[in-house]
Specification:
This protein is an all-alpha fold and 69 residues long. It has 3 helices and no strands.
């Protein structure tokens, strides 16, 4: 079973849609890269995320919110 989970704290009128979109995109990238321990999963994941516009700014906001480390 594949599922994506997004925190309840992101379901707020004060959270821009672009942030929620990115969090969901991260979850889908985790699913898409698969779970093969022999694959270079970190590079594949990073490559997928690099295509998302405003990635750095959104990740900084998520860190400030305590939702990303």
């Amino acid at each position: 079973m594949r599922s994506a989970i997004v925190r309840n704290s992101l379901d707020s009128a004060g959270i821009p849609d672009e942030i929620v979109d990115y969090v969901l995109y991260m979850q889908l990238a985790n699913i898409a890269r698969g779970f093969d321990p022999g694959a270079d999963r970190v590079t594949a994941y990073s490559d997928m995320l690099s295509g998302f516009r405003s990635r750095d700014e959104i990740e900084e906001i998520l860190r400030e919110m305590g939702l990303m480390h």
